[in-house]
Amino acid sequence: MGNKKSQEATDSGAPISRRVLLNRIWALAGGLAFAELIILLIAFFRPRRPRSDISAQDAVIIAGAVDRFEPGTVSAFVQGKFYLARLEDGGFLAMSRTCTHLSCTVPWVAGEDRFICPCHASEFDIRGDVINPPAPRALDLYAVSIENNVLKVDTGKLTRRSEFSTDQVTYPKST
Amino acid sequence: MEEKDQRKYFRNLLLHFRPSTVPERTLRLSLTWGLGGMAVVLVFLLIATGLLLKFIYEPVPGSAYDSILYLQSRVPFGQLLRNLHRWSGNALILLTFLHFLRVFYTGAFDPARRFNWTIGLILFAAVVFSNFTGYLLPWDQIAYWAITISTSMLDYLPVVGVGIKRLILGGTEPGTATLMNFYAIHTAILPALLLFILPFHFWRIRKANGLVIPRSPSEDTGYPGPQVDAMPHLIVREVTTALILLAVILLISMFYNAPLADQANPGLSPNPTKAPWYFMGIQELLMHFHPVFSLLVLPSMLMVGLFALPYIDDPTETAGTWFRSRKGRKMALIAMGVSIIGTVAGVLLDEFQFGLNPSGPPDMITNGLWPFAIILAFCAGFYLLMKKLFSATGSEVIQAIFTLLATAFVVLTVIGIWFRGAGMQLMWAG
To answer: What is the ipTM of this complex?
Structure first.
Protein backbone atom coordinates (compact mmCIF):
# COMPACT_ATOMS: atom_id res chain seq x y z
CA MET A 1 0.00 0.00 0.00
CA GLY A 2 2.65 2.45 1.10
CA ASN A 3 4.67 1.59 -1.99
CA LYS A 4 1.73 2.28 -4.21
CA LYS A 5 0.92 5.54 -2.58
CA SER A 6 4.40 6.82 -3.08
CA GLN A 7 4.30 5.71 -6.71
CA GLU A 8 1.10 7.67 -7.20
CA ALA A 9 2.67 10.71 -5.70
CA THR A 10 5.74 10.52 -7.96
CA ASP A 11 3.68 9.83 -11.14
CA SER A 12 2.96 13.44 -11.79
CA GLY A 13 1.72 12.73 -15.33
CA ALA A 14 -1.06 10.27 -14.31
CA PRO A 15 -3.29 11.70 -11.56
CA ILE A 16 -5.27 8.47 -10.99
CA SER A 17 -3.94 5.00 -10.33
CA ARG A 18 -4.66 1.99 -12.46
CA ARG A 19 -6.89 0.55 -9.73
CA VAL A 20 -9.06 3.66 -9.53
CA LEU A 21 -9.30 3.82 -13.30
CA LEU A 22 -10.32 0.16 -13.57
CA ASN A 23 -12.89 0.59 -10.79
CA ARG A 24 -14.37 3.55 -12.58
CA ILE A 25 -14.60 1.61 -15.82
CA TRP A 26 -16.37 -1.19 -13.96
CA ALA A 27 -18.78 1.29 -12.43
CA LEU A 28 -19.42 2.84 -15.82
CA ALA A 29 -20.05 -0.56 -17.41
CA GLY A 30 -22.37 -1.48 -14.55
CA GLY A 31 -24.22 1.80 -14.92
CA LEU A 32 -24.63 1.27 -18.64
CA ALA A 33 -25.95 -2.24 -18.10
CA PHE A 34 -28.41 -0.92 -15.54
CA ALA A 35 -29.56 1.83 -17.90
CA GLU A 36 -30.07 -0.75 -20.64
CA LEU A 37 -32.17 -2.81 -18.27
CA ILE A 38 -34.33 0.20 -17.45
CA ILE A 39 -34.81 0.97 -21.16
CA LEU A 40 -35.70 -2.67 -21.83
CA LEU A 41 -38.25 -2.60 -19.00
CA ILE A 42 -39.84 0.59 -20.29
CA ALA A 43 -40.02 -0.87 -23.79
CA PHE A 44 -41.48 -4.07 -22.37
CA PHE A 45 -44.20 -2.32 -20.43
CA ARG A 46 -45.15 0.18 -23.11
CA PRO A 47 -48.81 -0.16 -23.99
CA ARG A 48 -49.20 -3.18 -26.19
CA ARG A 49 -49.99 -2.61 -29.81
CA PRO A 50 -53.05 -4.31 -31.22
CA ARG A 51 -52.18 -7.81 -32.39
CA SER A 52 -53.62 -7.25 -35.82
CA ASP A 53 -52.91 -3.89 -37.37
CA ILE A 54 -56.06 -2.00 -38.08
CA SER A 55 -55.50 -0.34 -41.42
CA ALA A 56 -56.63 3.20 -42.03
CA GLN A 57 -59.30 1.73 -44.31
CA ASP A 58 -60.97 -0.16 -41.45
CA ALA A 59 -61.06 2.93 -39.26
CA VAL A 60 -63.29 4.73 -41.76
CA ILE A 61 -66.90 3.75 -41.22
CA ILE A 62 -69.54 4.35 -43.84
CA ALA A 63 -72.50 5.69 -41.94
CA GLY A 64 -75.00 5.80 -44.78
CA ALA A 65 -76.79 8.21 -47.08
CA VAL A 66 -77.30 11.78 -45.94
CA ASP A 67 -81.14 11.69 -46.10
CA ARG A 68 -81.29 8.64 -43.82
CA PHE A 69 -80.74 11.02 -40.92
CA GLU A 70 -83.49 13.42 -39.85
CA PRO A 71 -82.40 16.86 -38.62
CA GLY A 72 -82.42 17.02 -34.82
CA THR A 73 -81.70 13.31 -34.32
CA VAL A 74 -78.81 11.30 -32.97
CA SER A 75 -77.86 7.82 -34.21
CA ALA A 76 -75.62 5.43 -32.31
CA PHE A 77 -72.93 3.41 -34.11
CA VAL A 78 -72.01 0.53 -31.85
CA GLN A 79 -69.23 -0.81 -34.03
CA GLY A 80 -67.40 2.49 -34.29
CA LYS A 81 -68.26 3.51 -30.73
CA PHE A 82 -69.57 6.93 -31.80
CA TYR A 83 -72.74 8.97 -32.19
CA LEU A 84 -73.72 10.70 -35.40
CA ALA A 85 -75.76 13.81 -34.69
CA ARG A 86 -77.64 15.74 -37.34
CA LEU A 87 -78.24 19.25 -36.12
CA GLU A 88 -81.44 21.19 -36.81
CA ASP A 89 -79.70 23.13 -39.59
CA GLY A 90 -78.80 19.88 -41.40
CA GLY A 91 -75.13 19.74 -40.41
CA PHE A 92 -73.40 16.58 -39.11
CA LEU A 93 -71.23 15.91 -36.06
CA ALA A 94 -69.63 12.56 -35.14
CA MET A 95 -68.95 12.37 -31.43
CA SER A 96 -67.23 9.86 -29.18
CA ARG A 97 -69.55 8.07 -26.78
CA THR A 98 -66.99 8.42 -23.99
CA CYS A 99 -67.77 11.01 -21.33
CA THR A 100 -65.03 13.61 -20.97
CA HIS A 101 -65.35 13.44 -17.20
CA LEU A 102 -64.36 9.89 -16.24
CA SER A 103 -64.75 7.86 -19.45
CA CYS A 104 -68.18 6.35 -18.87
CA THR A 105 -70.25 5.53 -21.94
CA VAL A 106 -72.85 8.25 -22.44
CA PRO A 107 -76.30 7.27 -23.75
CA TRP A 108 -78.43 9.63 -25.87
CA VAL A 109 -81.74 10.23 -24.08
CA ALA A 110 -84.09 11.12 -26.94
CA GLY A 111 -86.94 12.16 -24.64
CA GLU A 112 -84.88 14.88 -23.04
CA ASP A 113 -82.86 15.73 -26.15
CA ARG A 114 -79.53 15.35 -24.43
CA PHE A 115 -76.74 12.94 -23.58
CA ILE A 116 -76.91 12.05 -19.88
CA CYS A 117 -73.97 10.30 -18.29
CA PRO A 118 -75.13 7.67 -15.81
CA CYS A 119 -71.95 7.88 -13.76
CA HIS A 120 -71.84 11.44 -12.52
CA ALA A 121 -74.87 13.03 -14.20
CA SER A 122 -72.95 15.14 -16.71
CA GLU A 123 -75.24 16.31 -19.50
CA PHE A 124 -74.43 17.28 -23.08
CA ASP A 125 -76.66 18.79 -25.75
CA ILE A 126 -76.99 17.49 -29.30
CA ARG A 127 -73.84 19.38 -30.33
CA GLY A 128 -71.89 17.71 -27.50
CA ASP A 129 -71.66 20.90 -25.47
CA VAL A 130 -71.76 20.56 -21.71
CA ILE A 131 -75.14 21.52 -20.24
CA ASN A 132 -74.43 20.14 -16.81
CA PRO A 133 -71.05 19.55 -15.18
CA PRO A 134 -68.92 17.84 -13.83
CA ALA A 135 -67.77 17.10 -17.42
CA PRO A 136 -65.02 19.62 -18.14
CA ARG A 137 -65.33 19.86 -21.94
CA ALA A 138 -67.56 18.95 -24.87
CA LEU A 139 -67.63 15.38 -26.24
CA ASP A 140 -64.64 14.50 -28.42
CA LEU A 141 -65.07 14.55 -32.19
CA TYR A 142 -64.37 12.27 -35.13
CA ALA A 143 -63.90 13.69 -38.61
CA VAL A 144 -66.95 13.46 -40.90
CA SER A 145 -66.71 13.59 -44.67
CA ILE A 146 -69.45 13.45 -47.29
CA GLU A 147 -68.80 11.92 -50.69
CA ASN A 148 -71.64 11.58 -53.21
CA ASN A 149 -74.16 12.17 -50.42
CA VAL A 150 -72.69 9.28 -48.39
CA LEU A 151 -71.40 9.97 -44.88
CA LYS A 152 -68.05 8.60 -43.77
CA VAL A 153 -66.65 8.84 -40.26
CA ASP A 154 -62.95 8.40 -39.60
CA THR A 155 -62.72 6.68 -36.18
CA GLY A 156 -58.94 6.53 -36.37
CA LYS A 157 -58.36 9.93 -34.87
CA LEU A 158 -60.09 11.61 -31.96
CA THR A 159 -60.16 15.40 -31.74
CA ARG A 160 -60.48 17.13 -28.38
CA ARG A 161 -62.40 20.39 -28.12
CA SER A 162 -63.41 22.59 -25.24
CA GLU A 163 -66.77 23.60 -26.67
CA PHE A 164 -68.87 23.60 -29.80
CA SER A 165 -68.09 25.95 -32.66
CA THR A 166 -69.66 26.07 -36.11
CA ASP A 167 -66.48 25.08 -37.96
CA GLN A 168 -66.74 21.58 -36.44
CA VAL A 169 -69.92 20.84 -38.40
CA THR A 170 -69.89 19.13 -41.78
CA TYR A 171 -72.70 20.16 -44.17
CA PRO A 172 -73.97 18.25 -47.17
CA LYS A 173 -73.20 19.98 -50.50
CA SER A 174 -76.77 20.78 -51.48
CA THR A 175 -79.14 21.70 -48.72
CA MET B 1 -36.58 -35.17 26.90
CA GLU B 2 -37.07 -35.18 23.16
CA GLU B 3 -40.47 -33.64 23.47
CA LYS B 4 -39.08 -30.90 25.62
CA ASP B 5 -36.40 -30.17 23.02
CA GLN B 6 -38.98 -29.90 20.30
CA ARG B 7 -40.98 -27.45 22.34
CA LYS B 8 -37.85 -25.43 22.88
CA TYR B 9 -37.12 -25.28 19.15
CA PHE B 10 -40.70 -24.35 18.41
CA ARG B 11 -40.51 -21.67 21.03
CA ASN B 12 -37.23 -20.40 19.61
CA LEU B 13 -38.68 -20.17 16.15
CA LEU B 14 -41.73 -18.29 17.35
CA LEU B 15 -39.59 -16.00 19.44
CA HIS B 16 -37.65 -14.98 16.41
CA PHE B 17 -40.78 -13.23 15.27
CA ARG B 18 -42.00 -12.24 18.71
CA PRO B 19 -39.87 -10.95 21.59
CA SER B 20 -39.24 -13.40 24.45
CA THR B 21 -40.73 -11.01 26.99
CA VAL B 22 -43.10 -8.09 26.61
CA PRO B 23 -44.22 -5.30 28.98
CA GLU B 24 -47.30 -6.67 30.70
CA ARG B 25 -49.30 -3.50 30.17
CA THR B 26 -49.01 -3.65 26.37
CA LEU B 27 -51.14 -6.79 26.50
CA ARG B 28 -54.23 -4.72 27.32
CA LEU B 29 -56.85 -5.05 24.65
CA SER B 30 -57.78 -1.37 25.01
CA LEU B 31 -54.34 -0.41 23.68
CA THR B 32 -54.33 -2.16 20.30
CA TRP B 33 -57.72 -3.88 20.01
CA GLY B 34 -55.65 -6.55 18.24
CA LEU B 35 -56.00 -4.62 14.98
CA GLY B 36 -52.46 -5.05 13.61
CA GLY B 37 -52.47 -8.74 14.44
CA MET B 38 -55.83 -9.22 12.79
CA ALA B 39 -54.53 -7.51 9.66
CA VAL B 40 -51.65 -10.01 9.49
CA VAL B 41 -54.06 -12.92 9.89
CA LEU B 42 -56.11 -11.57 6.99
CA VAL B 43 -53.01 -11.21 4.82
CA PHE B 44 -52.29 -14.90 5.31
CA LEU B 45 -55.93 -15.85 4.75
CA LEU B 46 -55.92 -13.80 1.55
CA ILE B 47 -52.75 -15.48 0.33
CA ALA B 48 -54.15 -18.93 1.10
CA THR B 49 -57.52 -18.34 -0.59
CA GLY B 50 -55.86 -16.41 -3.42
CA LEU B 51 -53.53 -19.31 -4.19
CA LEU B 52 -56.53 -21.62 -4.49
CA LEU B 53 -58.35 -19.14 -6.73
CA LYS B 54 -55.33 -19.08 -9.05
CA PHE B 55 -56.08 -22.68 -10.00
CA ILE B 56 -59.54 -21.76 -11.33
CA TYR B 57 -59.37 -18.19 -12.54
CA GLU B 58 -58.52 -17.36 -16.19
CA PRO B 59 -57.16 -13.81 -16.63
CA VAL B 60 -58.49 -13.15 -20.15
CA PRO B 61 -61.56 -10.98 -20.86
CA GLY B 62 -63.26 -13.71 -22.90
CA SER B 63 -63.14 -16.30 -20.13
CA ALA B 64 -62.55 -14.45 -16.86
CA TYR B 65 -66.24 -13.98 -16.12
CA ASP B 66 -67.07 -17.54 -17.13
CA SER B 67 -64.35 -18.91 -14.87
CA ILE B 68 -65.92 -17.00 -11.96
CA LEU B 69 -69.33 -18.49 -12.80
CA TYR B 70 -67.70 -21.91 -13.02
CA LEU B 71 -66.00 -21.33 -9.66
CA GLN B 72 -69.29 -20.38 -8.04
CA SER B 73 -71.47 -23.11 -9.47
CA ARG B 74 -69.28 -26.13 -10.14
CA VAL B 75 -66.26 -26.03 -7.85
CA PRO B 76 -66.92 -27.54 -4.40
CA PHE B 77 -66.90 -24.66 -1.90
CA GLY B 78 -65.99 -22.34 -4.79
CA GLN B 79 -68.51 -19.68 -3.84
CA LEU B 80 -67.36 -19.85 -0.22
CA LEU B 81 -63.74 -19.52 -1.35
CA ARG B 82 -64.53 -16.42 -3.38
CA ASN B 83 -66.59 -14.95 -0.52
CA LEU B 84 -63.73 -15.53 1.91
CA HIS B 85 -61.28 -13.80 -0.40
CA ARG B 86 -63.62 -10.89 -1.09
CA TRP B 87 -64.67 -10.21 2.49
CA SER B 88 -61.14 -10.66 3.81
CA GLY B 89 -59.90 -8.12 1.30
CA ASN B 90 -62.51 -5.59 2.37
CA ALA B 91 -61.99 -6.34 6.06
CA LEU B 92 -58.25 -5.85 5.59
CA ILE B 93 -58.75 -2.30 4.32
CA LEU B 94 -61.12 -1.52 7.16
CA LEU B 95 -58.85 -3.03 9.82
CA THR B 96 -55.67 -1.39 8.52
CA PHE B 97 -57.50 1.95 8.52
CA LEU B 98 -58.62 1.39 12.13
CA HIS B 99 -55.09 0.27 13.00
CA PHE B 100 -53.80 3.53 11.51
CA LEU B 101 -56.28 5.52 13.61
CA ARG B 102 -55.30 3.56 16.73
CA VAL B 103 -51.60 4.31 16.18
CA PHE B 104 -52.36 7.98 15.64
CA TYR B 105 -54.65 8.44 18.64
CA THR B 106 -52.34 6.61 21.06
CA GLY B 107 -49.45 8.76 19.87
CA ALA B 108 -47.39 5.74 18.80
CA PHE B 109 -45.27 7.65 16.31
CA ASP B 110 -42.63 9.10 18.63
CA PRO B 111 -39.05 9.27 17.25
CA ALA B 112 -38.39 5.60 18.09
CA ARG B 113 -41.43 4.59 16.04
CA ARG B 114 -41.73 7.26 13.42
CA PHE B 115 -40.01 5.36 10.65
CA ASN B 116 -42.46 2.54 11.31
CA TRP B 117 -45.27 5.05 10.72
CA THR B 118 -43.80 5.61 7.25
CA ILE B 119 -43.57 1.86 6.60
CA GLY B 120 -47.15 1.53 7.81
CA LEU B 121 -48.38 4.15 5.33
CA ILE B 122 -46.61 2.30 2.50
CA LEU B 123 -48.18 -0.98 3.63
CA PHE B 124 -51.58 0.70 3.71
CA ALA B 125 -51.09 1.87 0.13
CA ALA B 126 -50.06 -1.67 -0.88
CA VAL B 127 -53.23 -3.05 0.74
CA VAL B 128 -55.46 -0.55 -1.07
CA PHE B 129 -53.81 -1.25 -4.43
CA SER B 130 -54.05 -4.99 -3.84
CA ASN B 131 -57.77 -4.62 -3.38
CA PHE B 132 -58.06 -2.25 -6.34
CA THR B 133 -56.21 -4.55 -8.76
CA GLY B 134 -58.28 -7.49 -7.53
CA TYR B 135 -61.48 -5.51 -8.09
CA LEU B 136 -61.16 -5.78 -11.88
CA LEU B 137 -60.59 -9.53 -12.06
CA PRO B 138 -64.22 -10.79 -12.04
CA TRP B 139 -64.71 -8.75 -15.25
CA ASP B 140 -68.33 -7.95 -14.53
CA GLN B 141 -70.08 -4.60 -14.94
CA ILE B 142 -69.17 -3.50 -11.41
CA ALA B 143 -65.50 -4.28 -11.96
CA TYR B 144 -65.18 -2.89 -15.48
CA TRP B 145 -66.77 0.49 -14.78
CA ALA B 146 -65.23 0.97 -11.36
CA ILE B 147 -61.80 0.53 -12.91
CA THR B 148 -62.74 2.72 -15.90
CA ILE B 149 -63.70 5.71 -13.79
CA SER B 150 -60.94 5.19 -11.22
CA THR B 151 -58.20 5.10 -13.85
CA SER B 152 -59.80 7.98 -15.76
CA MET B 153 -59.19 10.12 -12.69
CA LEU B 154 -55.53 9.99 -13.75
CA ASP B 155 -56.41 11.98 -16.89
CA TYR B 156 -56.61 15.05 -14.67
CA LEU B 157 -53.04 14.79 -13.40
CA PRO B 158 -51.09 17.35 -15.39
CA VAL B 159 -48.24 16.20 -17.68
CA VAL B 160 -47.83 12.58 -16.54
CA GLY B 161 -51.44 11.50 -15.93
CA VAL B 162 -52.40 10.36 -19.42
CA GLY B 163 -49.12 8.43 -19.79
CA ILE B 164 -49.56 6.65 -16.45
CA LYS B 165 -53.13 5.72 -17.34
CA ARG B 166 -52.01 4.25 -20.67
CA LEU B 167 -49.27 2.31 -18.91
CA ILE B 168 -51.63 0.86 -16.28
CA LEU B 169 -54.36 0.02 -18.76
CA GLY B 170 -51.93 -1.12 -21.46
CA GLY B 171 -54.06 0.90 -23.90
CA THR B 172 -56.70 3.59 -23.91
CA GLU B 173 -59.51 1.59 -22.32
CA PRO B 174 -59.73 -1.53 -20.16
CA GLY B 175 -59.07 -4.64 -22.23
CA THR B 176 -56.92 -7.78 -22.40
CA ALA B 177 -53.73 -5.93 -21.54
CA THR B 178 -55.40 -4.29 -18.54
CA LEU B 179 -56.66 -7.54 -17.13
CA MET B 180 -53.26 -9.19 -17.52
CA ASN B 181 -51.49 -6.20 -15.95
CA PHE B 182 -53.83 -6.20 -12.99
CA TYR B 183 -53.59 -9.96 -12.60
CA ALA B 184 -49.78 -9.87 -12.52
CA ILE B 185 -49.72 -6.98 -10.05
CA HIS B 186 -52.46 -8.50 -7.89
CA THR B 187 -51.14 -12.03 -7.67
CA ALA B 188 -47.37 -11.55 -7.79
CA ILE B 189 -45.96 -8.07 -7.31
CA LEU B 190 -48.09 -6.77 -4.44
CA PRO B 191 -48.15 -10.00 -2.38
CA ALA B 192 -44.37 -10.25 -2.73
CA LEU B 193 -44.03 -6.62 -1.70
CA LEU B 194 -46.30 -7.14 1.32
CA LEU B 195 -44.42 -10.22 2.48
CA PHE B 196 -41.17 -8.35 2.04
CA ILE B 197 -42.17 -5.20 3.97
CA LEU B 198 -44.27 -6.80 6.73
CA PRO B 199 -41.33 -8.35 8.65
CA PHE B 200 -39.71 -4.92 8.52
CA HIS B 201 -42.82 -3.46 10.15
CA PHE B 202 -42.61 -6.01 13.00
CA TRP B 203 -38.88 -5.66 13.42
CA ARG B 204 -39.24 -1.91 13.96
CA ILE B 205 -41.63 -2.65 16.86
CA ARG B 206 -38.95 -4.76 18.52
CA LYS B 207 -36.35 -2.05 17.90
CA ALA B 208 -38.64 0.36 19.78
CA ASN B 209 -38.74 -2.09 22.74
CA GLY B 210 -42.24 -3.26 22.02
CA LEU B 211 -45.49 -1.40 21.71
CA VAL B 212 -46.13 1.96 23.25
CA ILE B 213 -46.93 1.60 26.98
CA PRO B 214 -50.59 2.43 27.66
CA ARG B 215 -51.16 5.05 30.34
CA SER B 216 -54.10 6.93 31.76
CA PRO B 217 -53.92 10.71 31.22
CA SER B 218 -52.66 11.44 34.75
CA GLU B 219 -49.89 8.82 34.75
CA ASP B 220 -46.22 9.62 34.38
CA THR B 221 -44.16 8.37 31.41
CA GLY B 222 -41.34 7.04 33.55
CA TYR B 223 -42.21 3.52 34.70
CA PRO B 224 -42.88 0.91 31.99
CA GLY B 225 -44.16 -1.77 34.39
CA PRO B 226 -43.16 -5.44 34.68
CA GLN B 227 -42.18 -7.73 31.80
CA VAL B 228 -43.92 -11.07 31.22
CA ASP B 229 -43.03 -14.04 28.99
CA ALA B 230 -44.41 -13.70 25.48
CA MET B 231 -45.20 -17.42 25.58
CA PRO B 232 -47.92 -17.94 26.72
CA HIS B 233 -49.11 -14.42 27.62
CA LEU B 234 -48.79 -12.74 24.23
CA ILE B 235 -48.94 -15.76 21.91
CA VAL B 236 -52.12 -17.17 23.43
CA ARG B 237 -53.84 -13.81 23.10
CA GLU B 238 -52.74 -13.53 19.49
CA VAL B 239 -53.92 -17.01 18.59
CA THR B 240 -57.27 -16.38 20.30
CA THR B 241 -57.77 -13.15 18.35
CA ALA B 242 -56.85 -14.90 15.12
CA LEU B 243 -59.33 -17.73 15.73
CA ILE B 244 -62.17 -15.35 16.58
CA LEU B 245 -61.44 -13.32 13.46
CA LEU B 246 -61.36 -16.42 11.26
CA ALA B 247 -64.68 -17.57 12.72
CA VAL B 248 -66.29 -14.18 12.03
CA ILE B 249 -65.01 -14.02 8.44
CA LEU B 250 -66.16 -17.57 7.85
CA LEU B 251 -69.63 -16.80 9.20
CA ILE B 252 -69.94 -13.68 7.04
CA SER B 253 -68.80 -15.66 3.99
CA MET B 254 -71.38 -18.36 4.65
CA PHE B 255 -74.27 -15.91 4.67
CA TYR B 256 -73.24 -13.17 2.26
CA ASN B 257 -72.12 -13.79 -1.30
CA ALA B 258 -69.51 -11.65 -3.02
CA PRO B 259 -71.28 -9.40 -5.54
CA LEU B 260 -71.23 -10.35 -9.21
CA ALA B 261 -73.10 -8.35 -11.85
CA ASP B 262 -73.53 -9.10 -15.57
CA GLN B 263 -70.48 -9.64 -17.73
CA ALA B 264 -68.60 -6.44 -18.55
CA ASN B 265 -70.14 -4.46 -21.40
CA PRO B 266 -68.05 -1.50 -22.61
CA GLY B 267 -71.08 -0.02 -24.39
CA LEU B 268 -73.29 0.29 -21.33
CA SER B 269 -72.41 2.17 -18.16
CA PRO B 270 -74.63 1.09 -15.30
CA ASN B 271 -76.49 3.79 -13.44
CA PRO B 272 -75.08 4.73 -11.02
CA THR B 273 -71.48 3.72 -11.65
CA LYS B 274 -69.39 3.74 -8.54
CA ALA B 275 -65.70 3.44 -7.79
CA PRO B 276 -64.62 0.77 -5.28
CA TRP B 277 -66.08 1.72 -1.89
CA TYR B 278 -62.77 2.88 -0.43
CA PHE B 279 -62.46 5.44 -3.26
CA MET B 280 -66.02 6.71 -2.78
CA GLY B 281 -64.74 9.56 -0.60
CA ILE B 282 -62.63 10.77 -3.51
CA GLN B 283 -65.47 10.23 -5.97
CA GLU B 284 -67.74 12.28 -3.70
CA LEU B 285 -65.10 15.00 -3.51
CA LEU B 286 -65.04 14.93 -7.31
CA MET B 287 -68.75 15.78 -7.34
CA HIS B 288 -68.04 19.07 -5.61
CA PHE B 289 -64.60 20.18 -6.72
CA HIS B 290 -62.76 20.81 -9.93
CA PRO B 291 -60.74 17.62 -10.60
CA VAL B 292 -57.40 19.37 -10.23
CA PHE B 293 -58.32 20.05 -6.60
CA SER B 294 -60.26 16.91 -5.72
CA LEU B 295 -57.78 14.53 -7.35
CA LEU B 296 -54.47 16.32 -7.16
CA VAL B 297 -54.20 19.23 -4.72
CA LEU B 298 -56.23 17.89 -1.76
CA PRO B 299 -54.99 14.26 -1.86
CA SER B 300 -51.35 15.23 -2.31
CA MET B 301 -51.59 17.72 0.55
CA LEU B 302 -53.05 14.98 2.75
CA MET B 303 -50.32 12.55 1.64
CA VAL B 304 -47.53 14.99 2.42
CA GLY B 305 -49.17 15.79 5.76
CA LEU B 306 -49.44 12.13 6.76
CA PHE B 307 -45.85 11.28 5.83
CA ALA B 308 -44.54 14.43 7.49
CA LEU B 309 -46.65 14.05 10.65
CA PRO B 310 -44.14 12.22 12.90
CA TYR B 311 -41.45 14.68 11.85
CA ILE B 312 -43.61 17.70 12.72
CA ASP B 313 -45.25 16.40 15.86
CA ASP B 314 -43.34 14.60 18.61
CA PRO B 315 -45.89 12.86 20.88
CA THR B 316 -43.27 11.33 23.23
CA GLU B 317 -44.69 13.05 26.32
CA THR B 318 -48.19 11.70 25.82
CA ALA B 319 -47.38 8.44 24.00
CA GLY B 320 -49.61 5.61 25.14
CA THR B 321 -52.42 7.88 26.30
CA TRP B 322 -55.53 7.72 24.15
CA PHE B 323 -56.21 11.15 22.61
CA ARG B 324 -53.11 12.70 24.27
CA SER B 325 -55.02 13.98 27.34
CA ARG B 326 -58.52 14.57 28.66
CA LYS B 327 -58.44 17.97 27.03
CA GLY B 328 -57.24 16.36 23.81
CA ARG B 329 -60.16 13.95 23.87
CA LYS B 330 -62.63 16.77 24.32
CA MET B 331 -61.07 18.70 21.44
CA ALA B 332 -61.12 15.64 19.19
CA LEU B 333 -64.81 15.10 19.97
CA ILE B 334 -65.58 18.71 19.12
CA ALA B 335 -63.60 18.42 15.90
CA MET B 336 -65.54 15.30 15.00
CA GLY B 337 -68.89 16.99 15.62
CA VAL B 338 -67.91 20.09 13.68
CA SER B 339 -66.65 17.97 10.81
CA ILE B 340 -69.78 15.82 10.57
CA ILE B 341 -72.06 18.87 10.56
CA GLY B 342 -69.76 20.90 8.30
CA THR B 343 -69.26 18.17 5.71
CA VAL B 344 -72.94 17.24 5.50
CA ALA B 345 -73.91 20.91 5.32
CA GLY B 346 -71.29 21.56 2.65
CA VAL B 347 -72.49 18.67 0.50
CA LEU B 348 -76.15 19.72 0.82
CA LEU B 349 -75.36 23.37 0.15
CA ASP B 350 -73.36 22.53 -2.96
CA GLU B 351 -76.04 20.12 -4.14
CA PHE B 352 -79.07 22.33 -3.73
CA GLN B 353 -77.66 25.83 -3.80
CA PHE B 354 -74.78 26.11 -6.22
CA GLY B 355 -75.32 22.93 -8.16
CA LEU B 356 -78.94 23.63 -9.05
CA ASN B 357 -78.66 25.29 -12.43
CA PRO B 358 -75.04 25.48 -13.43
CA SER B 359 -74.61 27.26 -16.72
CA GLY B 360 -71.41 25.62 -17.87
CA PRO B 361 -68.56 23.25 -17.15
CA PRO B 362 -66.91 23.41 -13.74
CA ASP B 363 -64.74 26.40 -13.35
CA MET B 364 -61.24 26.26 -11.97
CA ILE B 365 -61.99 29.31 -9.85
CA THR B 366 -65.59 28.94 -8.68
CA ASN B 367 -65.46 25.18 -8.30
CA GLY B 368 -61.80 24.86 -7.35
CA LEU B 369 -59.88 27.76 -5.93
CA TRP B 370 -62.74 29.39 -4.04
CA PRO B 371 -64.08 26.42 -2.12
CA PHE B 372 -60.52 25.26 -1.56
CA ALA B 373 -59.60 28.63 -0.05
CA ILE B 374 -62.73 28.54 2.11
CA ILE B 375 -61.84 25.08 3.42
CA LEU B 376 -58.24 26.11 4.12
CA ALA B 377 -59.45 29.24 5.90
CA PHE B 378 -61.92 27.14 7.89
CA CYS B 379 -59.16 24.73 8.98
CA ALA B 380 -56.84 27.60 9.89
CA GLY B 381 -59.61 29.34 11.82
CA PHE B 382 -60.47 26.11 13.62
CA TYR B 383 -56.78 25.62 14.47
CA LEU B 384 -56.44 29.10 15.97
CA LEU B 385 -59.77 28.89 17.80
CA MET B 386 -58.90 25.52 19.34
CA LYS B 387 -55.48 26.71 20.33
CA LYS B 388 -56.86 29.79 22.02
CA LEU B 389 -59.98 28.28 23.55
CA PHE B 390 -58.20 25.34 25.18
CA SER B 391 -54.70 26.84 25.46
CA ALA B 392 -53.73 23.44 24.01
CA THR B 393 -50.34 21.99 23.08
CA GLY B 394 -49.32 21.71 19.43
CA SER B 395 -49.84 17.96 19.61
CA GLU B 396 -53.44 18.34 20.77
CA VAL B 397 -54.30 20.88 18.10
CA ILE B 398 -52.74 18.74 15.37
CA GLN B 399 -54.88 15.89 16.67
CA ALA B 400 -57.98 18.07 16.40
CA ILE B 401 -57.15 19.00 12.79
CA PHE B 402 -56.42 15.36 11.94
CA THR B 403 -59.80 14.42 13.45
CA LEU B 404 -61.49 17.14 11.42
CA LEU B 405 -60.05 15.83 8.14
CA ALA B 406 -60.36 12.10 8.92
CA THR B 407 -64.01 12.54 9.91
CA ALA B 408 -64.72 14.53 6.75
CA PHE B 409 -63.19 11.74 4.68
CA VAL B 410 -65.27 9.09 6.44
CA VAL B 411 -68.46 11.17 6.06
CA LEU B 412 -67.80 11.68 2.33
CA THR B 413 -67.19 7.94 1.93
CA VAL B 414 -70.44 7.14 3.73
CA ILE B 415 -72.37 9.61 1.56
CA GLY B 416 -70.79 8.14 -1.57
CA ILE B 417 -71.58 4.56 -0.64
CA TRP B 418 -75.05 4.86 0.84
CA PHE B 419 -76.53 8.17 -0.25
CA ARG B 420 -75.85 8.34 -3.98
CA GLY B 421 -78.44 6.68 -6.15
CA ALA B 422 -79.29 6.72 -9.85
CA GLY B 423 -77.71 9.67 -11.67
CA MET B 424 -75.64 10.22 -8.53
CA GLN B 425 -78.59 12.02 -6.97
CA LEU B 426 -78.59 12.42 -3.21
CA MET B 427 -80.94 9.81 -1.78
CA TRP B 428 -80.98 6.80 0.46
CA ALA B 429 -79.35 4.12 -1.67
CA GLY B 430 -78.22 1.62 0.94
So the answer is: 0.73
| CA angle centred on B376, ends B373 and B381, rounded to 5° | 120
Q: Helices marked H in A46-81 — which ranges?
A: 56-59
Same domain, B243 and B101: yes
Look at residues B385, B428, B426, B429 and name the one whose alpha carbon lies nearest to residue B404.
B385
B272 contacts chain A (CB < 8 A): yes
With residue B42 as reference, give the H or E element that holds it. helix B35-54
Q: Which residues of chain B neighbour A78 with C-beta distances below 8 Å? A: 267
Q: Does B178 touch chain A (CB under 8 A)?
A: no
CA distance B382 to chain A (A): 30
Domain coverage including residue B416: 271-430
* Cα(B408)–Cα(B410) distance, integer angstroms: 5
Is the full-model pTM beyond 0.90?
no
Residues 6+ positions from B110 with CB-CB distance below 8 Å = B212, B310, B314, B315, B316, B319
Class of domain A56-168 (CATH, top level): mainly beta
Number of domains in chain B: 2
| Digit-coded pLDDT (tens) for B354-409 | 554 444 445 666 677 777 888 889 889 988 888 888 888 888 999 999 999 999 99
